[in-house]
Design goal:
The chain has about 140 residues and is mainly α. It has four helices and no strands.
């Protein structure tokens, strides 16, 4: 922000005193301070909103990526299961091959489910005690 030192503030005060006079200077200083405070609050609010929107977009992208991975894994597992269950392939396969393919399909399904469970939950800024206002805070 602005780098204003003590000497600059004193010079502004003296010039303000000479221009405005001792009666109007305190009111002008209060008004200036009020406007500066409003501007700071507005800028801070905008920064918070922008930050929240960026975090939300990041979460949407992560969810989209996880959904694509999950869909891909489930499609592959579905193809494996369909190839095991198809009557034409039954005649060509031995029971050992069928068991191996079933085990691979099962492993892919397990991986897909594990990917779903690994998706991070969004972090909140509140603690559990703050999140539930009806909870008695005197109890541990």
């Amino acid at each position: 922000m602005l780098d204003i030192g003590f000497l600059e503030l004193m010079l502004i005060g003296i010039v303000g005193l000479l221009v405005l006079g001792p009666e109007r200077l305190p009111k002008a200083a209060r008004t200036t301070g009020m406007w500066i405070g409003k501007i700071k609050r507005t800028v801070s609010g905008m920064q918070r909103e922008i930050s929240a929107q960026l975090e939300a977009e990041e979460l949407r992208q992560k969810i989209s990526e996880q959904q694509k991975k999950l869909d891909q894994s489930l499609k592959q597992a579905k193809r494996d299961v369909e190839s095991i269950a198809s009557p034409a392939s039954h005649a060509k396969q031995t029971s050992e091959d069928t068991e191996k393919r079933a085990a691979r399909a099962s492993a892919r399904l397990d991986d897909a489910l594990e990917n779903v469970h690994e998706t991070p939950a969004p972090q909140s800024d509140t603690t559990p005690a703050e999140a539930d206002p009806n909870k008695d805070r005197s109890q541990p």
